[in-house]
Fold:
Amino acid sequence: VTVSASTKGKPSAPQNVRAVSGLVKKIEISFAPSQDEDVERYKVYAARLCYGEFILVKKLEGRNNTKFIDDDRERLDNSGQFYYRLTCYNKVGMESPSVEVSATTKP
Structure:
């Protein structure tokens, strides 16, 4: 009897990620749903500086849940540049490479 197994790899990075600038104390992030049927959630991380510490700000459950509005009034201010990293997770908990975008809030 021969038994074989394969390990699920990391899912592909999110595609067509956009961050909308020019909104009052909020930033809208959207992206295409993963083509990988095993993707179950996305995670959105944010930072004030592109080389700063990114913190988890949102978990989006479901492969087709592809929009997030960051309206954290304590973190976001007027005319601020903000950076985001987006990853996706598959059923076995493997995280994709991140995609980074940035946007600026309205003055």
In short: Strands lie at 15-20, 27-32, 39-47, 55-61, 67-70, 81-90, 99-104. The first strand starts at residue 15 and ends at 20. DSSP finds no helices and seven strands in the chain. The mean pLDDT is 92.
